[in-house]
Each structure stands twice: as structure tokens, then as C-alpha cells.
Design goal:
Distance between the termini: 169 Å
Order of helices and strands: HHHEEEEEEEEEEEHEEEEEE
Helix content: 25-40%
Strand content: 15-25%
């Protein structure tokens, strides 16, 4: 019984063991299948990863090669471009040097030719023998030359012209000199290296004449400019420090922002000048400060009554019979300011004829008068009133004009004279005034010899006043002549 129990117990243990073995075997199969699946998954991922890497490398390597090639090409192109630019820069530099040398040579040739021409003119004829045509030719050459040379050569030529008496007002031929009107002399520089003290050894440019020229930013330092003339020149930002300016003339000059430090100013004419914002002391003795703009910008516009036409009682004809009507003698009679253009014609007291030259000065009843034997004769005279520009533009320049006009017999319309006054801005007539008998009905009064007069304000912007004296005669006869005398034109400041 005991053995049977033992065998039963072993059999049961064997059954349990087999059952466990079978269970373990099932578990092992599952684990094996799971492991096999797990091994298969990484292998596929690795194959995909390998495929992706291979694909990327097949794309990336050519791309990198292309980028490298592009960068290398761009660097080579940039190097080539820089080389070309350097070559071009060098070529331009050499070209500019060649041009500069050629320009310098051209200017030197122009400069030398001008020196030869002017020197020949001066040497061939003495200064006193130079004619008006000689000066006209010299002006043409001067204007042409100065347009083609630099400022350094201009300075040499100005000194050359001055030393040859061509732009010097006290030259042997008074009144005739080289006209530099409109010349560009900006940045002109003349400077003496001598000590500034008391102007003892300053460069001498006395009587220098540079009228109506451009002298912006010009410099005249430590120079003797006594009696120099700069009328109507533009001298903005100019430098006259340590300079002697006795009796210099700056009438109607633009002198704004100019420097007159330690400058000797005695009897200097600043009529109509603009010295706004300039460093200048105007306290010197005898300085003329009429109608100008001062350094602080204030405007002074006052004028004492002044007659600009001096005809009449001051001229003389000749010492022949006072009742003669045939004595003819042109008489010089200076006027102030000077005429706007050179006198032509017969020279009758600075009047000039532009209709038949049959007008003359004659003695009638002991007085010297204008008379004419032509059926129609005209005299002209022009006055440059630029000196009074500030007063005129302020509409404060009052004029008074008068003249004795008529005929020797009077009360006969076959002979009479009249005077017309034209106010000009450039070539435009701003206004006009007429004196004397006129058949057009404006002045139907008697033609008897009598005084005519008119007064008014000079129109703004007037720069030139023209006087036209006309003689009319219906028949040429000696018994009744158109005559005129004692023509006056006064300007004064209008009193408000």
C-alpha cells in the first residue's frame, strides 16, 4: 500500500512536470516568435535608413560640388573684375595725367601768346599813342584769354597789364585804358609778404582800375591800393585786411561779408555800396557814405539836391559878335556822373547827334545856345544813375527837369524845339516826360523861347536816363531858328 502510494505520488509529479514542460515549451515558442519579429523590425529600419542615407549622399555630394564650383567661379570672376577695375583706374589716372599735362601746356601757350601780343602792342606804340581801336582789340584778346586760363595765370596777367599802364588810371593817356568790364576774376589773390605794420613795404597797386568785374572771394592783403577804382564790381567775401585804401572808389560795389581788418580808409567813396555783414570801420576821415547799405544791414538813402546836367550859363562859344548866329564852336563841359556810353558826333557839351550834324552852339543875344539850321535835328545824352539805385528803388528819388526851349522869333510854329526824357531799365522804357512845344497837341502853347519844367519821382529800377533834344523847322531859313538852352536835371531825396 505504501509502495502504491509512492508510485502514485511519482506519477502525479511526472504529470505535473510534463504539464509544466509543455507550458514552458509553449512559452518558449512565443518568446522565439517574439524575438524573431523583434529582430526583423530593426533590420527593415536599418535598410530604410541605409537607403535614405544613400539617397541623400547621392544628392548632397553633387550639390556640394556644384556649390563649391559656384563659389570658386564667383571668386575668380570677382578677382577678374577687381583686376579690370584696377587696370581701368590706372588707365584713368594716366589719362587724367595726360589731360592735365595737355591742359597745362594749352594754357601756357595761350598765356605766352597773350603776353607776346600785348607786349608787341605796347612796344610798337607808346601808351599815349594807343587808339580806341587798339584798346578794343586788346579787350577782345583779354576776354578770350582770361576765359581759358586758371586763376594763377590771371594774377600774373593782371600784374602784367598794370605794369604796362593798361589798367592804371594815372597812365600817360588819361581816359583811355583797357576795359575789363564783366571779367571773371573770382579768387584773385595779391598778398605782400612784408610786415603789416604801417604799410611800410606793401605791394604797390596804386591807381589800379578793376571796374565792373567779378572779384568774389578775392584777396588784396597788405597792399597799397590808394586811388584804386572798383566801381560796380562784385566783391563779396573779399579780403582787404592790412591794406591802404586812400581815395579808393567802391561806388556801387557789392562788398557784403568783406574783411577790412586794420585797413586804412581815408576819403574812400562808398556811394551806393553794400557792405552788409562786413568787418569794416567807416570812421575814417572824408569817407563818402551816401546811399549805401551799412554793415548792420541798415539802409541810408539821402541825397542833397544835385544837378546832373551842366549846360547853359557855364559854357562859352567864342569872342565874336554876340549877335552872331553863325558862330559854331563845340565846348567841352564835363558832367557827373559820366555818360553811359562814349560820346560820338560833334561833342556838344557831351551831347551827341544822331540826325544830321547841323546842330551847334551859337551866341544869341549874348548867350550861348543850342541851335540848328536843319529841318529836323536831334541831340542825345544819357545819364547812368546806377549811383542812385538804392534811392530810386526806394521810390524816393525826386527829379526836377527844366529847359529854355523855343525859337528865335517865337509865336511861329515853323520852328520850335522840345526835350524828351526817357527812364530806362535795361532796354525797356519805364516812363517818359516831354517838355516844349509839340504839334501833336500835348503842348499846344506858344513856340516862343521860354522855360519849361517838370517834376516827379524817378520810376523804380531806373538805371539809365536818356535826354533827346529835337529841333524842328518847316523851312530852312536864318530868320527863325529852333533854339535851346540851360537844360537842368536835378535829383534830390523826396521828403515825406
Amino acid at each position: 500500500m505504501k509502495n502504491f502510494t509512492s508510485h502514485a505520488h511519482e506519477a502525479h509529479s511526472l504529470t505535473v512536470a510534463m504539464s509544466l514542460s509543455s507550458s514552458c515549451t509553449g512559452i518558449d515558442d512565443k518568446l522565439h516568435r517574439s524575438c524573431s519579429y523583434a529582430e526583423q523590425v530593426p533590420q527593415r529600419s536599418r535598410r530604410k535608413l541605409y537607403f535614405c542615407c544613400k539617397l541623400i549622399s547621392s544628392i548632397l555630394i553633387p550639390l556640394m560640388i556644384g556649390v563649391f564650383t559656384l563659389i570658386t567661379t564667383m571668386r575668380e570672376l570677382d578677382s577678374s573684375r577687381q583686376a579690370r577695375e584696377n587696370d581701368l583706374t590706372i588707365a584713368v589716372y594716366h589719362n587724367e595725367q595726360d589731360k592735365s599735362l595737355a591742359e597745362e601746356l594749352r594754357q601756357e601757350n595761350v598765356f605766352d601768346q597773350y603776353l607776346r601780343d600785348i607786349a608787341e602792342l605796347v612796344q610798337t606804340k607808346a601808351i599815349r599813342n594807343l587808339t580806341e581801336n587798339d584798346f578794343i582789340l586788346a579787350r577782345a584778346k583779354t576776354l578770350t584769354t582770361f576765359r581759358q586760363i586758371n586763376i594763377r595765370r590771371k594774377e600774373y596777367l593782371i600784374e602784367f597789364l598794370y605794369e604796362n599802364q593798361l589798367i592804371k588810371t594815372n597812365s600817360l593817356r588819361e581816359g583811355l585804358m583797357l576795359d575789363l568790364n564783366g571779367l571773371n576774376l573770382n579768387n584773385l589773390t595779391f598778398h605782400s609778404s612784408a610786415s603789416h605794420s604801417k604799410f611800410k613795404k606793401s605791394l604797390n597797386f596804386r591807381f589800379l582800375c578793376l571796374k565792373n568785374v567779378l572779384l568774389i572771394n578775392a584777396s588784396f592783403t597788405n597792399i597799397d591800393l590808394s586811388d584804386a577804382r572798383f566801381e560796380s564790381s562784385i566783391l563779396s567775401h573779399s579780403n582787404f585786411s592790412h591794406t591802404k585804401l586812400k581815395r579808393a572808389n567802391f561806388a556801387n560795389c557789392v562788398l557784403d561779408h568783406a574783411d577790412f581788418t586794420d585797413t586804412l580808409l581815408v576819403s574812400v567813396n562808398f556811394t551806393g555800396a553794400n557792405v552788409n555783414q562786413s568787418n569794416i570801420s567807416l570812421s575814417g576821415s572824408g569817407n563818402i557814405l551816401t546811399n549805401m547799405i551799412f554793415p548792420n544791414g541798415t539802409h541810408q538813402a539821402t541825397l542833397i539836391r544835385q544837378n546832373l546836367l551842366r549846360n547853359g550859363n557855364k559854357e562859352t562859344c567864342s569872342a565874336t559878335n554876340s549877335s552872331s548866329t553863325t558862330t559854331r564852336r563845340p565846348v567841352p563841359n564835363p558832367a557827373f556822373p559820366p555818360l553811359a556810353r562814349p560820346q560820338t558826333g560833334s561833342g556838344l557839351n557831351h551831347w551827341y547827334e544822331y540826325l544830321p550834324k547841323k546842330t551847334y552852339l551859337t551866341m544869341i543875344n549874348g548867350r550861348c545856345m543850342f541851335a540848328s539850321q536843319a529841318q529836323l535835328a536831334k541831340l542825345k545824352r544819357e545819364l547812368d544813375v546806377t549811383h542812385y539805385a538804392f534811392l530810386i528803388d526806394a521810390h524816393r528819388a525826386q527829379y526836377d527837369v527844366s529847359a529854355f526851349l523855343g525859337s528865335t522869333n517865337g509865336n511861329q510854329s515853323n520852328a520850335y524845339s522840345n526835350l524828351k526824357i526817357y527812364f530806362y531799365k535795361s532796354n525797356d522804357i519805364l516812363s517818359q516826360v516831354s517838355l516844349g512845344f509839340s504839334k501833336d497837341g500835348h503842348h499846344p502853347n506858344s513856340t516862343a523861347y521860354q522855360q519849361w519844367s517838370s517834376t516827379g519821382l524817378i520810376p523804380r529800377e531806373t538805371r539809365l536816363i536818356q535826354f533827346v533834344l529835337t529841333f524842328h523847322q518847316s523851312s530852312i531859313e536864318q530868320t527863325n531858328l529852333p533854339i535851346a538852352n540851360d537844360i537842368q536835371f536835378d535829383i534830390e531825396t523826396k521828403i515825406d
